[in-house]
Amino acid sequence: MSVPPDPGPPPRPAFVRLFFAVPDIRGRTAPAIRAGLAFALPALALYLAGFERDALLAALGGFAVLYGEKRPYRVRWRVITITAVVLVTVAALYGYLGAWVGADATFAEDLLVVGVLTVGAGVVVFIVNAMRHGPPGPFFFVLTACVASVVTRHGVAPDSLILAAAAGAIGSLVVGMAPALWHPQGPEIAATDAAMAAVEEYLDDNRAADPARRHGVALSTLHAWTVLHDAAQTDTALAQELWVSQHRFHDARPGPLAPPLPRPSVGHRLRNACHHDSHATVTTIRVVITAALAGALSVWWGLGRPDWAILGTVLVLQLGPDRIRGSLRGAHRLAGTVLGLAVFALLFLLDLPVLPLIVVIAVLNVAIELTIVGNYAVAVTFITPLAMLMGTPEAGIEGPIRDRFLETLLGVALAVAAMWVLVPRAHRRTLRHSDAEVLAACDTILDGENTRPVSAPKVLSHRRDLQWSLLAAEMAATDSASDEPHWAAREWPKHLAVCQIGYDTLTACWRTDPTGPLKAGTRHELSARVSVAQTNRTTHI
């Protein structure tokens, strides 16, 4: 595949167009309904058992169902269970902290709560980004901590909180696994079909090998193989179809089925992220500093709910967006908060009994899942009343509404500023670090001492690591193009050359007889290109 002439970085996204984007709900109806039922069923059970308003806190455990979506059922139960255990543990720890501090906390105790919330946010942000889990991201863990730390300060017993969260967790597991009864291979079929469609679209419309489109094909194909591995379906007819499709992408003749390895281990991903220039580390630094400052200023100014300021920062920064998308997320957060507060005020004035409130929160959960990908402002319109209904004392709404708006404004303003002020050129170092990882992974595969067949377990592991490095490099390049277009334009030819070598190395492996090693001539040619690319990268930031 040839490189297109005069390659350049993608243009900055249009802020106004993205702000008013209409949510696309295609394919999201079933997950949205599951999100609603994962709360409604356990909440109703708690209500009938006499827990009444505490039943609304089942939503904290109900969030677990969101993290199992698109995962095959063979592992989905484990993902939901682990997530649920973490959510219930978070609710317990921060619930007991809130009960210990109490409603009449001192200035120092309020700062202590801010510090503990900030540390928790930092830990979960780092882990989620290091693992490359993507949406729904760390937010619901932080939201659970914030709600738990507040409701127990205002009369909810920690034991009742834990019981409600645990009930929601059980509901998540039941609802999340239910589709296995009528469509047991649904996730595998959906992921494989999407990957093969991406390959066909690329081959039909994109023979010039546009890097962004190539990255999309690689991402969808890697996801499909990961799903098949999770489902233990790598030796099926479905896997054979994906195998043939991937060879078509690389213009290679398919040999016997030998699937790529699954995602790197948890330890491997965490270790790789432990670098000062990694995406996960930079994102965590920004979140921790900004959340601590937002929470401390909220306490200093006596706004009453520093957790809302912390949530505002986490929502903007949690997945390390570029400056344009980060600013868009902040603007969406503010607009959605204003609309959401109006919805909350209406619900408060209606003074609904608990049973109708359970229905309302279930509907809010459905609406959030339907809209959160397409337009975040619309989603926040539903997230805000959901959080307010769970975590607002029943004393009046003027103060909570005022504090919610002011603290959201504070958190968003600091988060947007952080992308420009805190390590402002981090995108440069992250891109260079990611490109260096690609070249290092190529070197490992092209090592002249390596005479193993390209399908040997060790070589497959190196090929898998190269693919993951390429995906990280493409993500870092996209962020750089948005953060600093002029610098990215100068750096782009070097980055594109690195990625081309990486993909050409993978293509060479796909075209090689799986029972033998890379040919010496191919290895020599690619190694020479790696050396040139390493020399071209000697210009420092």
TrEMBL record:
Residues 293-417 form the Integral membrane bound transporter domain. This is Integral membrane bound transporter domain-containing protein. It is a multi-pass membrane protein. The keyword Membrane applies. It comes from the Bacteria. GO terms for cellular component: membrane. Its main location: membrane. The chain crosses the membrane at residues 44-67, 79-99, 111-131, 138-156, 162-182, 285-303, 357-384, 404-423. Keywords: Membrane, Transmembrane, Transmembrane helix. It is found in: Membrane. The keyword GTP-binding does not apply.
